[in-house]
Amino acid sequence: MKIIACIKRVPTTDLQPRVAADGKSLDAAGVQYMTSFYDEIAVEEAIKQKEKHGGEVTVLTIGSAEASKEVREALAKGADKGVILVDNAWGGRDPLATAKTLAGKITELGADLVLLGRVGTDRDNASVGPMLAALLGWACVTDVVGLELGDGKGTARREADAGTETYAFALPAVITCQKDLNEPRYAGLKGIMAAKKKPLEESPCPPATSQVEIEKLALPPARKAGRIVGEGAAAVPALIDALRNEAKIL
Fold it and tell me: Is there a domain that residue 156 lies in?
């Protein structure tokens, strides 16, 4: 089975962001990066399915050459090879431009299953996976918390507002992964050493036209400092007055 896990390099979630001088992007100075949280779950599921059914796992990403760090981490956990479509302006691509580029490379590589995180932890769009499936003409199940494969087909359980839904589908398919699907493993020393010898392909990313352009990026206004209006039951009237006349929420 040929499995592709798509990942995205994103700023760490504890980042204290600063807007760059152009007013449209983040100041890159001092920014630390990581694999998007849900994409780590996709990598883990790809490796688990390979261990169960055999085959190979390719990790695919669009980003700068520095994304080799995140790809090597996936290789250390058990993926077989990595592919980076190098684009230093990857952060400016909208979901459709990203999906089109991924679809082209996946068609070239060939795959039975493509796994992605349900959402990128930087943009929170949750749209690349379904768009990718539509472009490929493949089945798609999103927010998956349980996955079983066999004999060219699969069954997936996904979270929905009313509970858990179960879907049957034929391969090839695109699956987006929710946090309850698995627990990502840590790379051991043996895996880290082996990852250095695994193939990592870098090639120029095909140009793409985004339909969405960032016009302005701004941080939210700073929150006003809180204050203590009193103690115990005696503070209730002052609290109600503040909520009604200052906060305007009563």
Answer: yes
